[in-house]
Hints:
alpha/beta
Amino acid sequence: MRIVAITNQKGGVGKTTTAINLAACLAQRGIRVLLIDLDPQANATSGLGMAQEDGGSLYPALVLGTDPHAAIRPTRLPNLSIIRSHQELAGCEIELAQSGNHLARLREVLHPLRSSGHFDYILLDCPPSLGVLMTSALAAADELLVPLQCEYFGLEGLSKIVHVVQQIRECGANPDLRLEGIVMTMYDSRANLSQQVVGDVRNYFAEIIYNSIIPRSVRLGEAPSFGKSIIEYEPNGRGATAYRALAAEFLARRVENKG
């Protein structure tokens, strides 16, 4: 079982869209996935049509030491479960920061889920910031997946993420953390800028950038307002096709690494 943090400290780059739809496409392929919404804004929660509920997030497990299994809920999609978010997680940042081991706390909480054998992957949808929850996710994850918008500001944000990953490794919080992949999102084939940014990322990160590119799509933006993944909302559209290809490439990489 692998824990994958999906993160970018910049908002509006398709991070939660990628978390929802990668999880849904993996589940469609028969992979057992647990999506954990760590963002107090709870967009992954509402994007899958789930209601927020007091005590329904990972907050009780992080702060009070309750069993994280109690927070798991099934979704409409077979093989896909979720731990929802709630605004209470915003307060969790303060409480964790005041504790002596805030970087290790999430890893400790996730240990029973890792060892249970119930899931093949845990995907962490992180807040769009460099706060305690995001750094705790990096300390708990086996690998990091970065959705990157096809704009030059995205390149600046990527350098910050690489720096934070290096800090997490060097401080001993998670020396084995791996920047596994970069997913280019909101790609407009008609725009020279999109092509230039993808080219630049390929030049610097040729070994980890995904071949699958997520297009700019109105349908991808609409789907969360209906509480649906793109494979439910428009199963034969460009967005669904792109995320299915991403899921296939995601799994193929792991087969190659094992080989």
